[in-house]
């Protein structure tokens, strides 16, 4: 009996090893195809929010970042050039509540007065950006935190009087990011921009990520959020769309299927694809190693949006 159990254990281990090897073989063509190509990953504040309430201790925060940080380091290790762009909406809401301010939104965009802008800067530049950088570096990466203010990375102008100090992106100057990538660094970008006079603006991170991806001629733009992807019926998980074109995305807008905070995200996704980014991916970032499952496997786990012209060409 002991020998039989030992034999079964050996068989089990052999199958497990075979399955692991199959995963690596499945990933190989994607690694070969996208070697040396840039991928912009927008790490959403909603993903962080479930792990990072205002009272969260730093070590707990770090534990929740591990899967994401490992994915980014692994992507770089197999030849991708990752750029991380992060949001922080729920964390900003939490800090605003501490000072007695109620968040206000118009069409999914935060109304930002000067006091709110200072909170945005504090949360993004003082808390979230350094924490993401530390997590990536702890797993062997060489991440460096930057903001749209550095080297005039994001040049903006006031979007509207109604929104206050919310910026509309006028230009992306990607030279800083290009130099960092060439030196083997992983940029982690907080989307605070400024106009030519030096006035700072709150930049929606979804639009920031899309414009950075376009400026870098990125192969892929990945949005990590707290939903499983794009659904034809927002209330029906079974209606998840695995792959769609920008035209099909426009039809969902026309049908009124996209509302709230998803609207700016998917508007920016459509603009990225129209602007030359090969594919945009919407993933549930709460799933462990979701980036790797989407980018290095045949099935993927979220929604991939491609241009009409390239509708059948992209994989992974």
Q: What is the residue-averaged pLDDT?
A: 86
Beta percentage is 15-25%
CATH hierarchy: architecture = 3-Layer(aba) Sandwich
Task: Label the structural class.
Answer: alpha/beta
Q: Report the CATH superfamily.
A: Acetylglutamate kinase-like
Q: Could you spell the SSE succession in H and E letters? A: HEHHEHEEHEEEHEEEHEEEEHHEHE
What's the alpha carbon Rg, rounded to whole Å?
A: 20 Å
CATH class: Alpha Beta
Q: Helicity level, as a percent range? A: 40-55%
| Low-confidence runs of at least 5 consecutive residues | 1-7, 56-60
Number of helices: 10
Summarize the SSE layout with pairings.
Layout: H1 2-34, E1 38-43, H2 45-49, H3 58-77, E2 81-86, H4 89-98, E3 105-106, E4 109-110, H5 114-138, E5 143-147, E6 154-158, E7 167-172, H6 175-182, E8 186-190, E9 192-194, E10 200-202, H7 205-215, E11 220-225, E12 230-231, E13 240-241, E14 243-245, H8 246-254, H9 262-274, E15 279-284, H10 290-295, E16 303-306
Parallel strand pairs: 1-2, 1-11, 2-8, 5-8, 11-15, 14-16
Antiparallel strand pairs: 3-4, 6-7, 9-10, 12-13, 15-16
Helix pairs in contact: 3-5, 4-5, 7-9, 8-9
Task: Describe the protein.
The chain has helices at residues 2-34, 45-49, 58-77, 89-98, 114-138, 175-182, 205-215, 246-254, 262-274, 290-295; strands at 38-43, 81-86, 105-106, 109-110, 143-147, 154-158, 167-172, 186-190, 192-194, 200-202, 220-225, 230-231, 240-241, 243-245, 279-284, 303-306. The protein is an alpha/beta fold and 316 residues long. The chain has a single domain (34-306), classed as Acetylglutamate kinase-like (Carbamate kinase). An eight-stranded mixed beta sheet has the order 5-8-2-1-11-15-16-14, with helices on both faces. A two-stranded antiparallel ribbon has the order 3-4. A two-stranded antiparallel ribbon has the order 6-7. It is globular and about 55 Å long. The chain starts with a helix and ends in a 10-residue tail after the last strand.
């Amino acid at each position: 009996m002991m020998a039989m159990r030992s034999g079964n254990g050996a068989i089990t281990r052999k199958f497990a090893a075979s399955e692991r090897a199959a995963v690596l073989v499945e990933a190989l063509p994607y690694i070969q195809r996208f070697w040396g190509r840039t991928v912009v990953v927008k790490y959403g504040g909603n993903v962080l929010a479930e792990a990072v309430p205002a009272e969260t201790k730093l070590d707990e925060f770090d534990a929740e970042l591990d899967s994401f940080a490992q994915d980014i380091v692994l992507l770089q290790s197999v030849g991708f050039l990752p750029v991380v762009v992060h949001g922080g909406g729920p964390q900003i809401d939490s800090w605003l509540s501490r000072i007695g301010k109620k968040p206000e939104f118009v069409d999914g965009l935060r109304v930002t007065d000067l006091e709110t802008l200072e909170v945005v800067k504090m949360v993004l530049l003082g808390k979230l950006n350094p924490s993401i950088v530390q997590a990536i570096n702890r797993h062997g990466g060489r991440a460096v935190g930057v903001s749209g203010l550095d080297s005039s990375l994001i040049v903006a102008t006031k979007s509207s009087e109604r929104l206050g100090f919310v910026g509309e992106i006028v230009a992306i100057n990607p030279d800083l990011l290009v130099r960092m990538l060439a030196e083997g660094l992983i940029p982690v970008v907080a989307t605070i921009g400024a106009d030519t006079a030096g006035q700072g603006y709150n930049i929606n991170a979804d639009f920031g990520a899309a414009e950075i991806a376009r400026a870098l001629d990125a192969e892929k733009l990945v949005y990590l959020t707290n939903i499983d992807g794009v659904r034809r019926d927002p209330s029906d998980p079974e209606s998840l769309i695995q792959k769609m074109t920008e035209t099909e995305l426009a039809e969902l807008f026309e049908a009124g299927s996209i509302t709230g905070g998803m609207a700016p995200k998917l508007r920016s996704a459509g603009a990225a694809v129209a602007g030359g980014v090969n594919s945009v991916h919407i993933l549930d970032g709460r799933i462990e190693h979701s980036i790797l499952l989407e980018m290095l496997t045949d099935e993927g786990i979220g929604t991939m949006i491609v241009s009409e012209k390239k509708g059948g060409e992209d994989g992974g």
